[in-house]
Each structure stands twice: as structure tokens, then as C-alpha cells.
Amino acid sequence: MELKLESCSLKASVVLNPAALVGVEVPNCLSKVTLHVAVPGKTIVAEVNAKSLRKTVAAIVEAGNGVAVVLQSKLEEGNRLTKAGIAAPPKTPKPPPAD
Predict the structure, then answer these.
(1) Sheet containing 69-76: which strands, arranged edge to edge?
(2) By CB distance 3.0 to 4.6 Å, which of 60, 63, 69, 75 could disulfide with 16?
(3) Which residues in the chain land under pLDDT 70?
(4) Are strands 80-87 and 42-49 parallel, antiparallel or unpaired?
(5) For residue 27, how many other CB atoms are within 10 A of its CB?
(6) Nearest to 72, CA basis, from 35, 42, 40
């Protein structure tokens, strides 16, 4: 069976390496920061709020590898993420397997 469907948009969740943001200093005078994210075969461009990026960097400094850095947005033409958000939620440990 095959169905042909249409979508209004494509939401992208891009997982970033926290180490790439260690030591990044985001000046308070900035309101937006443009990110260029390399993925196999292309580069995705996203503009994020500087305040969100500062919070993400602070979370990485505090938790180290204990966070997952996630960039989320709607993917538009030209490999652009519009109205992108970035966050570093703590990683949750996997539960032990049930016996």
C-alpha cells in the first residue's frame, strides 16, 4: 500500500555536539546569533535568540556532557531554520532493563 500525502511544513530537530559550544561567549549587546550547522552534504543556517544561546552555553558549562543540545525549527527553502530555538535539556539516564 502506498499513500501520497501533503505537508504544510517540515519541523527539524538538530542534535548538536555540546563541546562545540564550550567557551563560546555571546555578548549581551546581541539580540540574535546566526548559526551555520554542517550536516552531511549541506549546511543549515539558523538564527537563534542570543539569550537562549547564553542559557544553553551556561547549561553546558554546568552539566558538561550531561546535556543534549537541540536546535529546533521549521525547515524552509535554502536549508534555513526559521524562528529557531536552542536548548540544552539534561540527559535522562536510561532505565535498567526489566527482568
Answers:
(1) 10-16, 69-76, 80-87, 42-49, 32-39
(2) 69
(3) 99
(4) parallel
(5) 8
(6) 35
